[in-house]
Design a protein that fits this description.
Elements: E1 9-17, E2 21-43, E3 49-62
Antiparallel strand pairs: 1-2, 2-3
Length: 79
Amino acid sequence: MNDCSKSPMIVDTYKVEGKNKKGPLVHSTKAFVNGNGYIDYSIRDNRQAVIVGRVGVLCSFGECGARGKRSAIIRGDRR
């Protein structure tokens, strides 16, 4: 493993103003991660970035996302 966990990984989301102009900060999330792999983020309707999947990466502190729970995805067509 490398030393990624010395400082947090920060993901900021901004409001877009005009054509491709960065507006004010809407949400900021941070997590301490370490490893060799990938992390999938999803931007929710409220413009919050959340981790929806990760492989080969440990998340030790911060907003690390759900661990194996499918309750975050609610679909009306499932019974």
